[in-house]
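Loading example: each entry is read as two labelled lines plus one structure line.
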Amino acid sequence: MTDRDQVLAKVKALIEPFNKKGAEVTEATRFAQDLEWDSLTVLDFVANIEDEFDIVITMNQQAEIENVGQLVDAVGQLQG
Amino acid sequence: MSDLFSKFDPLIQQRETLLSTGITDPFNLVMESVESPTVAICNGRRTILLGTYNYMGMTFDPDVVQAGKDALDQFGSGTTGSRVLNGTYQGHKECEAALREFYAMDHAMVFSTGYQANLGIISTVAGKDDYIILDIDSHASIYDGCALGNAQIVPFRHNDIEALEKRLKRLPAEAGKLVVLEGVYSMLGDVAPLDKMVKVAKDHGAMVLVDEAHSMGFIGENGRGVAEAQGVIDQVDFIIGTFSKSVGTVGGFCVSNHPKFEILRLVCRPYVFTASLPPSVVATAATSIRKLMHGSNKRAHLWENSKRLHGGLKKLGFTLGTDEPQSAIIAVIMPDLEKGAAMWEALLHEGLYVNLARPPATPANMTLLRCSLCAEHSAEQVEEILGMFEAAGRSTGCIG
């Protein structure tokens, strides 16, 4: 697996506990529209992502992230 | 043409559904006359006020009222100007002097509202490459201060010391950082562990701003707030406060010991580009602040009221926002908005006003009946209030 594939696999695993609808998760899956997450769910999920990859995703950056693929890209960049 | 108002349709629909049940609109109450800090006439009925933030009951204090009348006579009804142009009168300087004395700090800056104080200080102090690390349950004025500025915003879970520390550790060591906390969080009335959080912030080189809007005058030996009560006020860089709660009028402020603080008067847009407070308002505020310095007996009575109401409501079977009373705010958690609105109306019929709070103002989508006590509530009034909660709770089925 490439580094990006590994990040994607970890992100998907971290989505699962919050995937109440059991929706199929792809890179195109959108957090607000498809997973229907509210702001508190987003906070908890982002905290888990931050802990897993030892990064901080600011609210400014979160505003630019709509779907799973964009999050994987952002994690890759933030890990530097 | 698309209607710019269509984005409000879901809210309009929710309101119509609620009001179609014939319930009194909880967000449209009119106080027809006000008798005292604790009693007003609403819908022709004498009503005990339990949702005013008038913690120290200063609104009808004879000295405070007289100071306002005198200032109206001597200085007129308004300043019609910005603080940096023609809007600084003797009264504004005296008000800032009273604040410096109250907090024993070097600098004080008075804004036209508490909202503008947060808006101004937060947006001005933290620049583009700086980080603001804030509690997720922060007040709207703090979030709006972040939105007005262009710093990087990092939220952490409410009152979670470890979550704060983790984020501070991950940020670049050399970056400017402002940790924003509140002494009392107004929705549930819970207090922040400032003693630990301020230390964590300082250990990681951050400046600290604490909003003490709901603790001024009441919490701490001198009423300086939670930072004083927990022994860390000396390490707090900026305290934000308001005149619209314990002080009993309107206005906001920031106090600080920062040696360069005064420059903010020239660069802080919500301070510069608005009219200053009317002379009567700063006169009432200054008088009230000076009286609050000697308010220890009232503080003790307010604690008694808070403890009695908290214990009584708990015994009746209501679910409360905190296990123990931590402030003058007692939040009663309602199962949903419909039940909350029904209970709110039943209390109003009993002759009691509380705040109905609902999302997005509340954490975790909760509907709350928020009670804020006043030092002028008598012990008898608190018993009366408990009787009203019991009757309304039973008639709406909120308690068994």
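Chain B has a mean pLDDT of 96.
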